[in-house]
Amino acid sequence: MTLVLGIESSCDETAAALVTDGRVILAQAIASQEAEHAPYGGVVPEIAARAHAERLAPLIARVLDEAGVTLADCDAVAATAGPGLIGGVMVGLVSAKALAMASDRPLFAINHLEGHALSPRLADASLAYPYALLLVSGGHCQILRVEGVGKYRRLATTIDDALGEAFDKTAKILGLGYPGGPAVEKLALEGNPKAVPLPRPLKGRPEPHFSFAGLKSAVLRAKESGQYSDADLAASFQQAALDCILDRTRRALAEMGEVTALVVAGGVAANRTVRAGLEGLAAEFALPFTAPPLPLCTDNAAMIAWAGVERLAACFPADPLDFQARPRWP
Ligand code: KG4
Ligand code: ZN
């Protein structure tokens, strides 16, 4: 059995997990900083870095304890090395370096997006390469062809906001607080998705890229007009966003070549309307549709540990102990 300790600290979740090559999560712990950032309507980098520094060590001790193992039982230490808020990434990566050095185990410096991209394989042993991945989170909005460990072809990205960011900004406009995605989804249930005329940025364009800034501005103008209820605004925003995703993903699938499945990952994959829409789209292409279970969709350390497991299995060399944290890492 191979066992990897994973660490995640790139945004506002401090997380540690122990994952085996048999796809068993022996233990995991996540400390959310939602309460600290809520008063500011978004993540404050300095507060995030301090909170990671305070919480990470006890969290790692807790998962080792819960799993009844020690560092010596681990075959590698994997940590998010970027992209993300640099202060937080450094806390996680430096901790991982120290643990790897002390236990004489290989260090894997994992790209956070790679964690999201491979997480569906942790949940589903039958998911084979290559698969189409729509990665929609607070910081990212991409369509990838996942061809193997370390082999990702990006077909689309956002030219401005990420989809989760658009949900969060819409929530702010509607006074729903942070994080906004779940609140917008809940309010949208009471509204009419056709009530507010909103744009579908880039819909129909040949390149499958995304844009959500114009949609958010349109929601703001509609709110300021005083003509619509908040529920109608939420439902109409969600519908417009979904229409954009479906149009863009349809275009990407058409030019992607053969894939085994359509997969959605990232925090917005928790949205039921988004999932249902994508399920329909997959059916159009006669593809199976999967989404990792919700706790694996949002930021977590199990996906980072799993990326380490996949690297070990593929005989990747360890990363050097002077590997630098990267705020940007496409
Ligand atoms: O993957 P994630 O936990 O962190 C990042 O790497 O960004 O994603 C968080 C994002 C936030 O923008 C949040 O509002 C959004 O995912 N989100 C949702 C839902 N749950 C989380 N957006 C729409 N509907 C949801 N149910
Ligand atoms: Zn993420």
UniProtKB/TrEMBL annotation:
Sequence ranges assigned to domain Gcp-like in this UniProt record: 25-306
Cofactors required: Fe(2+)
Enzymatic class: transferase
Principal location listed in the UniProt entry: cytoplasm
One GO CC annotation: cytoplasm
Subcellular localization(s) per the UniProt record: Cytoplasm
Cofactor stoichiometry and binding remark: Binds 1 Fe(2+) ion per subunit.
Domain of life of the source: Bacteria
Purpose of the protein: Required for the formation of a threonylcarbamoyl group on adenosine at position 37 (t(6)A37) in tRNAs that read codons beginning with adenine. Is involved in the transfer of the threonylcarbamoyl moiety of threonylcarbamoyl-AMP (TC-AMP) to the N6 group of A37, together with TsaE and TsaB. TsaD likely plays a direct catalytic role in this reaction.
Protein name: tRNA N6-adenosine threonylcarbamoyltransferase
